[in-house]
Amino acid sequence: ADYLVMLENNDELRPTGGFLGTYGILRIKDGDILSFNTHDIYHLDMPVQTRINIAPPEPIKKYLNKKWYLRDANWSPDWPAAARTINQFYQAESVLNPAAEKISEFSGIIAITPKLITDFLKITGPVMVEEQAYNQNNFQDLLQYRVEKGYQVLGVSSWQRKEVVGEIYKKLKIKIFDLPPRQWPEIINVAINNLTEKNLLLYLTDSQLENIATQNGWAGEIKNYYGDYLMAVDANLAALKTDAVMKRSLDYRVSEEADGLISKLTLNYAHNGQPDWKTRAYKSYTRIYAPLGSKLIKISGYKTEQIDTGSEAGKTWFGFYLIVEPGKIKSLTAEYKLPPAIRLNNNYGLYIQKQPGKELDSLTVDLSWKNVIKSYSPASLSMQKIGPKRVKWEGDLNIDRSFEVRF
Question: Are 318 and 287 in contact (CB under 8 A)?
Fold first, then answer.
């Protein structure tokens, strides 16, 4: 079975976890890894740039590039949709590319963000490549420096600069397979935790296997949920690796007004960096996904005509471009009216999805009603009942979260 593995760099955040800088072909037979060869994504994109002409989504066209290539194919935050697009680009580009491996059908598309690797390195200890020790603390920074800058010092050509990625993976695989059996449960736990946190996303072409992945919450799809829904999706467009120094928080309030439910979402961004070779002003095309039929009232700091709106995966989204200068904090609030069907007689449910690759340490959910609240869940996170009709949670958004209130 052949799998297309996309290595996503979440220091350059994109809708499904990060910029697709490197891809690999993973070959598995009878549960054994036969080979895993990684390549710089530009090896596929560059040779075909005059021969391929696919119009990108409008924000990519406006803020990044007039044409669409594999490296920007994960534009949908719905991983199954993104994976299918990635596959289409791989097929289109590899056919035109004499050097590329031609694989007409993959058994699956897998996305990996660096946290999976650093979690494995915690267990295996460092791996040595080119006389350099890659460990849990330095892996992402060191690798980034090596492929962006350090390759020149080593006399490696820019074309070969990402071959080191494959070397690290090979060494890591050996270390994992050399672990004593008593440590295997740790490795399995790391894999499962990273699936839950979406640092590892699976798209499997076998529909039965894909169903199992979906049931376990490993498929990265935009959830089909009966009640209220929220996902805030950032896409770093030409802001280098600035996500490494961005801190974010999210505050979501719903209040029951005379004419229905009004949502107030506040997104806060703090840019804790200074300009250098991998940091500049943060630029993101950000989309807010809300229940289908939500009506935008306003977004602070924007005129109505600066906000795009559309629908995808059974949700309505509002999109806008934002810039945060180094050392600055930016806060913006979106107000919108939820569709009437959201509040069922005596029950309100909310599902908030984590964007893969995005660290969000501070999440607040604050709900105010006209009726007295009888019960609510979860009882976990830091939770307070502010009055008989208002309830509030505080926590993080490192996994998907769901909330429920009954009246």
Answer: yes
In sequence order, what are the beta bridge partners of 29? 32
pTM of this structure: 0.96
Separation between Cα atoms, residue 109 and residue 116, nearest integer Å: 16
What's the CA gap between 237 and 72, in Å, rounded?
10
At 257-271, the pLDDT tens digits run 999 999 999 999 999
Q: Which of 296, 288, 295, 243 is nearest to 266 (CA)?
A: 288
Could you give the dihedral angle defined by the CA atoms of residues 74, 243, 163 and 24, in that order, rounded to the nearest 10 degrees? Answer: -30
260 membership: H or E segment, kind and range = strand 260-271
Rounded CA gap, 244 and 267, in Å? 18
Count other Cβ atoms within 10 Å, centred on residue 142.
17
As a whole number of angstroms, the distance between CA 23 and CA 73 comes to 12
- How many angstroms separate the CA atoms of 345 and 177, rounded? 54
pLDDT tens track for 268-302 = 999 999 999 999 999 999 999 999 999 999 999 99
Residue 264 tokens read as: 């107030």
Q: What is the CA radius of gyration of the chain?
A: 22
Q: Average the pLDDT over 209-235 and give the result.
A: 97
Predicted confidence (pLDDT) per residue in 126-178, tens digit: 999 999 999 999 999 999 999 999 998 889 998 999 989 989 999 999 999 99
